[in-house]
Automatic annotation (TrEMBL):
In the C-terminal section; belongs to the prokaryotic molybdopterin-containing oxidoreductase family. InterPro entries: 2Fe-2S_ferredoxin-like_sf, 2Fe-2S_ferredoxin-type, 4Fe4S_Fe-S-bd, 4Fe4S_Fe_S_CS, Asp_de-COase-like_dom_sf, Formate_Dh-H_N, Formate_DH_asu, MoPterin_dinucl-bd_dom. Residues 133-164, 177-205 form the 4Fe-4S ferredoxin-type domain. It comes from Gandjariella thermophila. Residues 1-75 form the 2Fe-2S ferredoxin-type domain. This is Formate dehydrogenase subunit alpha.
């Protein structure tokens, strides 16, 4: 519709407000209670204007066709100024001493020329709450605008905040009014971000010293890929804020990306290369360290062949670094034994999704969840592991979407779900077959889609005869009636979505889990069709998708080109000017076995703490000890680095240039915000210099050049370049040429399988590799906690440790009673491999017989307990099922 702002006609969309119209006309209109991410409040009255001949609050008044808006109406302006003066009159003078760029209130006061109050009314003396390490409350600066409360409710969905008290005394409060740190606040930072006055702030934010630089980059924690602004002062991160309107996170963030940055300045950062001399690791020069690595790798390669060397490349590092890592191993060493952390988490997704649909990625973008009316969330705990997505799912559910959760634990989202299918750990395939059978029996399938676009229906239907709900109820321990409700909800939805995580993949039959979950989408025609939301995999590390995309895999070249395909090898060899070795390499678990068997002599580990995070760590340590030579790049002296012969100091995502690929296949730019500490340098630089020391040239002088070369070898990424990403923003793959804008939704025309059809999988349910028995009667599930990240190498070096200081063994009240233990009692947890001791935490999240812990601390060593069972198809560890015995100590 057309409206008139002053003399300027502007076009605005349906539902636009007077404020939107003013902004569309390029006019600044002061606001205090308004935030684009939130529903309008209309409480502060500083945005008063004259519209359609009335004085109205611009933020809440709908624009109407031909409306005349006068921005400079004296009466409206006087009323707005009066409202502002009333607000300011209650505040202490320090409210106006905050730098303008950090206080909306100061900016609004400047606009109205309010420098002090005329009224000098009673000011508050309500004190501060500095109990929380990140969220600091100065109650006297609170103007009760309600933005923080709305942020916590409408964006984050935690509902931790409220406005307490009356009238003049109204002030934000968290939880039931006790210390902030004890409230349910999850420290997403949304309240701090929206607060217009500094009442809610974070350490250093209101510091009057100016910010030197602000760099827009991509978060280096989980695979969601939030766009963040990193603000630097005195060479240190002063604050990190989410970029409003950013494509993935839309101005939201979580406790890690937003606040857990102190690791970057930690005194424990590695700042110089280390070389083992006897039992000790001692500092050395780069020349000496690289010379030694070059000499030892060359000697081992020349004596035993390239196969004697393996490399684990980092899913934390950039695409460009992963691209160089695999090029280095393949061309300089002559080995395909390169793998990445995807082996430990979503290798079954890559294999399963490729087999079902054709490509190794999720099928749809995150944005599609906005119109999902039923979300099937299986084996994922996004409110802790992918909080920005967890918040989006929460909001969809609050807006009426149905939610089915498949998880042995009662997670936050399980508690919110319409149906919680709380199957036994390792029972996914049975549960999905039960649902598939009910979809078929209930007539919820899409016959036309199945006829035209899918294969395997007859075999699957035949197999499903063995999975009536009653049998599934027995196999998985889920009530048949709940299965029926879940099938009906997913079956009847118009826009059903599947979102899943490690609870599906980290199993002895993880690939079968992915395939039988994909079956549900295929049966419903809910993948590759317009309006459907497809299947989203919540990939784990910041660049675990990219590490595999770049070919840091033993059987695949960049862009998922099979190593076994001579044409693919040739295409790559042509660009590299060197042959690609033919023999497939070792997967991570095979590397350890080969080391112990004496076939693998050198292990090169970039940014993965295998001694802490790989399963059965006793076995991993034996493998490290068995290797003649171990090299490690890390930010810190990790458990693995402590076992290495040479440790090379790497830099973090905050200090380097490149790209990451997030969980929905978006290439996003990573830009250096900080200078590297000491002599530390990027994995990119280290690999190039090492190749040089070995008499080779990897080409690719810059990350941009490496991306360009990758685009030349991998048709899937042919259209990706740094230049384009800088100009156009994130691009989804496949992106096959410079004019291809990337494919956010896959398979609308055809699936990428050989016959162009989605493949239903008729795989039987098989029990987990590890089984409880009378000696080890409990099932230990391992996973994540909100506050810490994987090995914890970064989050343990931040104030996140005050939010979660130690690991616990979570168990049900029934089991605690049977064991005679209380909250906090130390419990010896014994698996068939080791014993660790953990304090008990009694919770309704666990069903009797099942216990849970995470793996974020080196001590207790959770992975000394986990087993060597792996997914039969991909070698992904069975982290989610370990038989244990419990004994109070
Ligand atoms: N805060 C935080 N965030 C992270 C990480 C972190 O360490 N900390 N790590 C990142 C990484 S690398 C990854 S891969 C992702 C992982 O993210 P998620 O996949 O969400 O992580 P997990 O907590 O390991 O497991 C998810 C859920 O699977 C459930 N589960 C276990 N067994 C089964 C089963 O048999 N069936 C079903 N249906 N469910 C089961 C668990 O109870 C758990 O709730 O998170 C990323 N984000
Ligand atoms: N019991 C149990 N164990 C698990 C899991 C589980 O669910 N249960 N989950 C598994 C999963 S899904 C994953 S992904 C793994 C994660 O395991 P890891 O990959 O070992 O853990 P991270 O902490 O993500 O990072 C590894 C190391 O990389 C370093 N690092 C960070 N950025 C960079 C960089 O840019 N360059 C270099 N060179 N180093 C860097 C960090 O300091 C850290 O030491 O853990 C697995 N282990
Ligand atoms: Mo992961």
């Amino acid at each position: 519709m057309r409206v008139l702002v002053g003399d300027t006609p502007v076009e605005v969309g349906e539902g636009a407000t007077v404020l939107d119209a003013a902004r569309a006309a390029g006019r600044y209109l002061p606001t205090l209670c308004q935030d684009d991410r939130l529903s309008p409040r209309g409480s502060c009255r500083v945005c008063l204007v004259r519209a359609a001949d009335r004085v109205v609050a611009a933020c809440t008044t709908p624009a109407t066709e031909d409306m005349a808006i006068q921005m400079d109406d004296p009466r409206a302006r006087e009323a707005a100024r009066g409202a502002l003066e009333l607000i300011v009159s209650e505040l202490p003078s320090r409210a106006l001493e905050i730098p303008a760029e950090r206080s909306e209130l100061v900016r609004v006061c400047t606009h109205f020329g309010v420098t002090d109050t005329r009224f000098h009314g009673a000011t508050h003396r309500r004190g501060v709450d500095h109990s929380h390490p990140y969220v600091k409350l100065d109650r006297d600066l609170c103007i009760a605008c309600g933005r923080c409360v709305a942020m916590c409710a409408e964006v984050q969905g935690t509902f931790a905040l409220e406005l307490a008290g009356r009238g003049f005394d109204t002030v934000v409060s968290a939880g039931t009014g006790g210390p902030w740190v004890d409230s349910p606040c999850v420290a997403c930072g949304g309240c701090v971000d929206t607060c217009p006055t500094g009442a809610l702030s974070e350490p250093g934010l209101l510091d009057p010293a100016p910010i030197a630089t602000t760099t827009t980059t991509t978060c280096g924690y989980c695979g969601i890929g939030c766009t963040l602004d990193v603000h630097v002062r005195d060479g240190q991160v002063a604050a990190i804020t989410p970029v409003h309107g950013a494509p993935v996170n839309r101005g939201h963030a979580c406790v890690k990306g937003r606040f857990a940055h102190a690791f970057a300045g930690s005194r424990e950062r590695l700042t110089a290369p280390l070389i083992r001399r006897g039992d000790a690791l001692e500092e050395a020069s780069w020349d000496e360290a690289l010379g030694l690595v070059a000499a030892r790798l060359t000697a081992i390669r020349d004596r035993h062949g390239g196969q004697a060397v393996a490399m684990i490349s980092s899913a934390r590092a950039t695409n460009e670094e992963n691209y160089l890592a695999q090029k280095f191993l393949r061309t300089v060493v002559g080995s395909n034994s390169i793998d990445n952390c995807s082996r430990l988490c979503h290798a079954p997704s890559a294999a399963g999704l490729t087999a079902s649909f054709g490509l190794a990625g999720g099928t749809n973008p995150l944005d599609d969840l906005d119109h999902a009316d039923c979300i099937l969330l299986a084996g994922a705990n996004p409110t802790e592991a992918h909080p920005v997505v967890g918040a989006r799912i929460t909001q969809r559910v609050l807006a009426g979407a149905r939610l089915v959760v498949v998880d042995p634990r009662r997670t936050t989202l399980a508690a919110l779900a319409d149906v919680h299918l709380r199957g036994r750990p390792g029972s996914n395939v049975a549960v999905f077959h039960g649902l598939a059978r009910l979809l078929l029996d209930g007539g919820y399938t899409d016959e036309e889609f199945l006829t035209r676009r899918a294969t395997g229906l007859a075999e699957l239907t035949e197999l499903l005869r063995d999975y009536p709900p009653e049998r599934v109820a027995e196999l998985a321990a889920v009530p048949a009636s709940d299965l029926a409700t879940a099938a009906r909800l997913y079956g009847q939805a118009e826009h059903p979505a599947i979102v899943y995580g490690l609870g599906i993949t980290e199993h002895a039959h993880g690939t079968d889990g992915v395939r039988t979950l994909a079956n549900l989408a295929i049966l419903r025609g809910a993948v590759g069709t317009p309006g459907c939301c497809g299947v989203l995999t919540l990939r784990g590390q910041n660049n675990v998708q990219g590490a595999s995309d770049m070919g840091a895999l033993p059987d695949l070249l960049p862009g998922y080109q099979p190593l076994a395909d001579p044409a693919a090898r040739q295409r790559v060899a042509r660009v590299w000017g060197q042959p690609v070795p033919e023999r497939p390499g070792l997967r991570i678990p095979q590397m350890f076995d080969a080391a112990i068997a004496g076939r693998l002599r050198a292990l090169y580990v970039i940014g993965e703490d295998i001694a802490q995070t790989d399963p059965d760590s006793g076995h991993v340590r034996a493998a490290l000890d068995a290797c003649e030579f171990v090299v490690c790049h890390d930010l810190f002296l990790s458990q693995t680095a402590a076992h290495a012969d040479v440790v090379l100091p790497a830099v973090s995502f905050l200090e380097k240039d490149g790209t990451f690929v997030n969980f929905d296949r978006r290439f996003q730019r990573v830009r250096p915000a900080l200078a590297p500490p000491g002599q530390a340098t990027s994995d990119f630089d280290i690999l190039r210099r090492l190749a040089h020391a070995m008499g080779a040239d990897l080409g690719c002088p810059t990350p941009a050049a490496a991306m360009a070369e990758c685009a030349a070898v991998a048709p899937l990424f042919a259209g990706i370049s740094h230049d384009r990403l800088d100009r156009e923003g994130p691009l989804h793959w496949p992106c096959r040429g410079p004019r291809d804008t990337g494919q956010a939704v896959l398979y609308l025309d055809r699936f990428a399988t050989a016959d162009g059809r989605a493949a239903l999988a008729a795989r039987p349910y098989l029990p987990p590799g590890e089984q409880p028995d009378t000696a080890f009667p409990y099932v230990l599930v391992t996973g994540r906690r909100l506050e810490h990240y994987n090995s914890g190498s970064m989050t343990r070096r931040t104030p996140n440790t005050t939010l979660l200081a130690e690991e616990t063994l979570d168990l049900s009240a029934a089991d605690a009673a049977a064991l005679g233990i209380d909250d906090g009692t130390p419990v010896a947890v014994t698996s068939r491999r080791a014993t660790v001791t953990l304090p008990a935490r009694i919770t309704d999240e666990l069903a009797p017989g099942e216990v849970f812990t995470a793996f974020h601390f080196p001590d207790p060593a959770t992975n000394s307990l986990t087993s060597a069972h792996t997914d039969t198809a991909t070698g992904c560890p069975e982290y989610k099922v370990t038989a244990v015995a419990l004994r109070p100590t």
